[in-house]
Every structure is written in C-alpha cells, then in structure tokens.
C-alpha cells in the first residue's frame, strides 16, 4: 500500500516527529502541503494529514489544500495532530472536511506536543 503523509510542523517540530515516526512504520512519503499536487495525491492508496491543533483548528495551509481537492471517491485517509492542551473533539472540523471530499477516514491520533509553561511549574 503506497502511503503519503502531508503535514505542517512549524512551532516546535512536534508534529514533524510524529509524522516521521508514522512514516517510518508505514514506509510513507512525507510532504508539506505546498510540495504536493492533486495528481500526486491520487497516486497513493492511503493519505495521512497532520498538523498542530490550534484551539480546534488545523493549519490553514493543510485545510486549504484539502478544500481545493476534487472528490476522492473513498480513498483512505487518517488524521494526526499535536497540541499544547487536550482539545476535546479536536479533529471534528478537519474530519468533516475530509468526509466532504469523500475520503474514508480510517483512523485518528492526537498527542500533546508543547506543554504550556503554566503546567510545568
């Protein structure tokens, strides 16, 4: 199964670490949203989407990429994110976006990335 992971990681690099770990297990190609085309995405059987989660929102560059995709006719996808705090239902908006593009979301993962200083003391 050919796997592509599209992710954004810019704050502290935590999402990139998760993308690399998943990518190693799945032998996946890792790309940023800016470096992938719609045609390239179609070449893969499974697409992972990852971002930091900012108060329930994924990075706009990843969201914009998905918004501009054609219908994917049941192509399998998974979602992963990192966040500084527990965000209940953190993936809901992005999952709905993927479903609107006819992806079949087969899994999700969220973990803490940066821990706010107030929680360390």
The largest sheet has its strands arranged as 2-1-3-4-5
Work out the radius of gyration: 14 Å
Can you tell me the CATH architecture?
Answer: 3-Layer(aba) Sandwich
The CATH topology comes to Rossmann fold
List the total number of helices.
Answer: 5
* Percentage beta strand: 25-35%
Considering DSSP H and I runs of 4 or more, what fraction of the residues is helical? 25-40%
Helix and strand run: EHEHEHEHEH
Description:
- This protein is α/β, with parallel strands linked by helices and 121 residues long.
- The protein has helices at residues 14-26, 38-42, 60-67, 92-100, 117-120; strands at residues 3-7, 29-31, 46-52, 76-83, 104-112.
- Strands 2-1-3-4-5 form a five-stranded parallel beta sheet, with helices on both faces.
- The radius of gyration is 14 Å and the shape is globular.
- The N and C termini lie far apart (45 Å).
Q: Layout of SSEs?
A:
Blueprint: E1 3-7, H1 14-26, E2 29-31, H2 38-42, E3 46-52, H3 60-67, E4 76-83, H4 92-100, E5 104-112, H5 117-120
Parallel strand pairs: 1-2, 1-3, 3-4, 4-5
Features:
26% strand, disordered C terminus, 121 residues, 32% helix, alpha/beta, 5 helices, five-stranded parallel β-sheet, 5 strands, Rossmann fold
Brief rundown of the structure:
The longest helix has 13 residues, at 14-26. The protein has 121 residues and is an alpha/beta fold. It is built from five helices and five strands; from the N terminus they run βαβαβαβαβα.
